[in-house]
Amino acid sequence: MADNKTKSTKPANKTPPKSPADPAKERAAKRLSYESNSSHEGAGAAELSALEEAFRKFAIHGDTRATGKEMHGKNWSKLCKDCHVIDGKNVTITDVDIVFSKIKGKSSRTITFDQFKEALQELSKKRFKDKSNEEAVQELHKLIEGKAPIISGVTKTISSPTVSRLTDTSKFTGSHKERFDPSGKGRGKAGREDLVDASGYVPGYKHAGTYDHKVQGSK
């Protein structure tokens, strides 16, 4: 009995087989792709360096909650002082405060990095009067790029009579005196423990060790 059902046949694969790839060419292509991506990433990182890096360091100074994206007026003034933007002649602390108030928003207490650059542009005209606007901005940027806040108020060692007395071994008494020799050098274990004297002499005898010399001298 004839089978009326048609048998399904798979379509022939007309795609030509791929030739085996060259491993050396594949490695070279991957290396070029990686170097290309790395160069783009490096270019993006360079945009955040120098001036913006300094901005962020000063922006977070003294504030653990700061993100580095905005800067308060106090830190702005410190940046201008530490980076010598303020020279006392062309630019003063008053000029710095006026520019900050002018650049920031009316209801804002901080400035962004873009506003920071605007403020520097304003100050550059006063700081470098003998240069063109572009050169003045560049010179002002050089004063700030790569800089960080100067930490002041480091505690210094103060000479005190009380401290001197506590560290002067010649004034020690009792068991503390026994721990140091006349030059102030520590005796080590001998100054901390009672060591047995097996020399045969009475402790503290000044002429210890002179017996042989006396006997030989009398002969």
How many β-strand stretches? 2
Molecular shape:
elongated
Please give the share of residues in helix: 40-55%
Radius of gyration: 41 Å
State the distance separating the first and last CA atoms. Answer: 150 Å
Number of helices: 10
Neighbour order of strands in the largest sheet: 1-2
Structural class: mainly alpha
Report on the biggest sheet. 2 strands, antiparallel
Average pLDDT taken over every residue: 75
Report the sheet-strand fraction: under 5%
Instruction: Catalogue the unreliable spans.
Output: 38-46
Q: What sequence of helices (H) and strands (E) makes up the elements?
A: HHEHHEHHHHHH
List the helices and strands and how they pair.
Elements: H1 23-46, H2 51-59, E1 70-72, H3 73-82, H4 93-103, E2 110-112, H5 113-127, H6 133-144, H7 161-167, H8 174-177, H9 189-192, H10 211-218
Antiparallel strand pairs: 1-2
Helix pairs in contact: 3-4, 4-5, 5-6
Report on the architecture of this protein:
This protein has helices at 23-46, 51-59, 73-82, 93-103, 113-127, 133-144, 161-167, 174-177, 189-192, 211-218; strands spanning 70-72, 110-112. The protein is mainly α and 219 residues long. It has a two-stranded antiparallel ribbon with strand order 1-2. The longest helix is centred in the first third of the chain and has 24 residues, at 23-46. It is elongated, with a radius of gyration of 41 Å. The termini are far apart. Residues 38-46 have low confidence and may be disordered.
